[in-house]
Description:
single chain; three-stranded antiparallel beta sheet; 6 helices; globular; 22% helix; alpha+beta
Amino acid sequence: MNRRAKQAPVAVAWMLAVALGGGCRSTPVDPPAVTPAAAHADATAARASVTEVARTCARITSCGRMHDPTRLRDPSACVDWWLQFVAVAGERPLHDCVHNARSCADVDACTKPPGDERARAACRTAGRGGHIGRENGSFCDGKLLVTCNDDDPAQSSVVDCATMNATCGESRGAGGLVTRACLAPSVCPPDAPEARCDGTRAILTCNDGAVARVACPAGFRCDDMRDEGRASASCAPPEDVRCATAGGRTCEDDTLVDCVAHGHFRAVGITDCRARGLVCAGTGEGSRCAVSRDAACNGRAPRCEGNTLVFCAAGMEARMPCTEAGFAGCDADAHGSDAACAPSPTAPAGNDAGVSRP
């Protein structure tokens, strides 16, 4: 990597707030009549917009790792996620950040939180002492719980157990598995629920005496609730509509209704596909915003045609020449059995070129 591009990192909390920020829907209003010429112009603009999203997603997912969320390693899923959630909050900064990246580390900085420098420093020190990997990469540094990510060191984290009236120590789970955790018997007695609200902005979770705190995204509140008869808690947006089935999706005219579920977060996501010049097409989990109801492709895995990455993007076939985008070429099994562009060993200077490994 010759130089690091200026970054506009996108925090995961922001992405989660966007992804889960649905609410009650108003009564649908019939769209105004349009002329054939206007409809053609709108369709052309919609395809151009999807093409730009597809190009950005190809770069994001080519730098993805096997442990990343699907949206960060599958270009088709990335396009669906982008059209549903990212576009709502203003997508230009993320587009620009990804296209100015000179390495996969730069791309990660656009799509992931920055991690904790204290954790990275502690992990480097522990690694030199041969401690990393002994207990799932976690260890105690006084009352600090440090978790090292060997695959992606920038994502190493640290938790101050003292903030939860806990100490850092060993936790033995089912089967005798030993892990490091924040331990607080007084906060997590045997009869404590697995999840409960800690005020209105966070959730406390208990697991075999270990305690963890999950902050709600900005604008969300914590609600104590019952999940299959058991006491639980979730972060919910204001005036939210609760999901009946996690992961359920459906089209209502050209509105995509999605039950977004992510750990303790669950809400209904409402996407107006028509606002982007798209339609809502498909059924069940295959429902998505698409360029047309007669999708040219749907559900096909990414593939290589020479050094061009080919994949489905909102129902149309997207093609990105990997070398023109700064990658070394197209790798047919970069992500297991799925294709992706292969990062270059080094990063030559130049606009939108030379995407190197971290």
